[in-house]
Amino acid sequence: MVSKTKKAQIIKEFGKNEKDTGLAEVQIALLTDDIKNLTEHLQLHKKDITSRRSLLKKVSQRKHHLNFLIRNDFERYKGIISKLNLRK
Questions:
Q1: Using CA atoms, how far apart are residues 41 and 52, in angstroms rounded to an integer?
Q2: HSE-CB of 18 using CA atoms within 13 angstroms
Q3: Which of 31, 46, 51, 69 is most buried, with most CB under 10 Å away?
Q4: What dihedral angle (degrees, nearest 10) is formed by the CA atoms of 38, 19, 15, 77?
């Protein structure tokens, strides 16, 4: 889970304003941060099945958001991929 200050910072960086949480780039950035945190957690706690399921769900959600950007605005897709250093 992302802290309030970290979430506000991500929204400010990727959104148009601080209340713009529905933008695809903001959603992808928040999910990416959650994925990184869960990955670190699972490296320490290998048998935590609930967190593993949550990680797979978040990866799937991020994939759907990225596919939405590919279909609708490829330039925004390339921008978010380069900012977050995602492999694609």
A1: 9
A2: 6
A3: 31
A4: 70
CA dist 43 and 7 (Å) reads 23
Sequence letter at residue 64:
H
Helix (H, G, I), strand (E, B) or coil at 15: coil
pLDDT tens, position by position, 10-21 = 999 998 888 888
Token pair recorded at residue 38:
């869960």
Residue range of the domain that includes 29:
4-84
The CATH number of whichever domain residue 74 belongs to comes to 1.10.287.10
Domain count within the chain: 1
Residue 31's identity, in one-letter code, is L
